Amino acid sequence: MADQAHVAILMQGENSWNKWRQLHLSIQPDFVGANLSGQILSWTDLNRGDFTQANLSGTDMRGANLTQAALREADLSGADLGGVDLNRANLSKANLRGANFYEAGPIQADFTEADLSGAVFVQAALTGAILNKAKLHGADLSEADLSEADLSNADLRGAILTQSSLIEADLNGTNLSGADLSMAHMVGINLREANLSGANLSKANFSGISLSRKNIPHPSTANLTDANFKGANLSEADLRGVDLSGIDLSAAILDGAIFDEKNRPYKS
Asked: I need a surface site. Which of 23, 40, 86, 130 has the fewest CB within 10 A?
């Protein structure tokens, strides 16, 4: 249960809470299970706060410091987290449906199995974030930095990732069907068993990527059905054994790309 004294001080507003926090840095704020729905908590110092299973739906937390905060199984649906610092926070299994993370960061946080459907991460800094098995269906991650992020087995169906950075990200088993990855930077990513059916990958940079049998024992498991690679940079990509039938490779950069005889898109 939450410490009601902590809740009472927080309800007094940003200035009162931050002054108290500066005088009690050694104390971990306790909001376990608290109902803070709809509250204005913007610019508050909530680092190391414990919000496990708390109700923060619709809360205004813009610019708040949530470094190392515990938000496991918390309800943050519809919350405004623009510009928030969630570095090393734990949001595993949290409900973040429709939450706003515009320009938030750094967010090297744990979102394992969190529900982020329809969330907005435009220009957010998610470098190294853990999004394993997270639900990101329909989320807007345009221009977000997801470099080295773990998106393995995540649900990104219909997500918007235009101009996002996915350099060396782990997309093993990720469902990207119908996602918009146009102009995304995807150098060095892992797409083993990923589903890219119907995805828009036009002008995306895949240079040096390997989709071959070496990385995908059964290339058919990397579903590229009807994917649009128009204008994509696939220079030096290893595409041996990958089914490229029905894929739009028009104007794609294929310098140094490796094919086998069965899937070569042109005759030498």
From this structure: 23
